[in-house]
Request: fold
Amino acid sequence: MGVMCMKKKKPIINSLVLVILLIGFFPPLAADVFSFSGNSVRSVFAKGKERTLLSGNARITSDANNIRANEIELYGENLVYADCRGSVHLVNVERGLELTSDQLFYDRNRKVSQVRGNAVMVDRKNEVVVKGGYIENHEDDDITIIQIGVRILKENMTCRSEFAKYMRKTDTLELTGLPVVYWKGDTYRAQKIIIDLKKDEVKLEGNVEGQVNTEKKEDETPAPSATPTPSETHSPSATPSPTPPPAPSNPPKTPAPASREKVSP
Reply:
């Protein structure tokens, strides 16, 4: 008698159902609602080795941030850590922040994001653009640390340094590592430069150098006076004077008076 063998089929679960199951298995942090999705999802449920890999249009959504990337790996207890790779884009709507990079690491417990590779942060509320090789953003303290080839751009201002700290609560920039600031046509250099973005103030500390542009800009040049100059006052009128009639070519001769002869009686 033959024995019939049946090969066990692997269950196929779509990403949406898997997201729901994982959220139930790993309860989110009390202060944060957390969900994720992707074109394909692979997960490990073993205790202490929890790990989920999202590939293709990978997304993470929480109360604070929306993150998308080509690939996102979630790991740690309650999947609090996210390692994002490829065309990373993070948006924090509440703070008006956007982060783009090649790689991003996010810690949901500490609410800290670390960005590497073509890192750019846009602060839309304060109209500041931050660029660097490495950017670390601390959400609770509202502080951003920038390192390696730092460039900070704002209207009428460009900053360059190797290290910078941006404190959004006080609208203050602190630059070190060969800092230089180009502000409204002026140039400032020092060992340390502190900029108050609200008050438009620059504080320089150590080996201070400055170059102030005193030339008036074109829009500051006074307009020419409308009062006529003396030469204009005495110049002949522009209205042509009437032309006198032409003199006759052959004027008639006036006859000489007739002489009178004396008649004797």
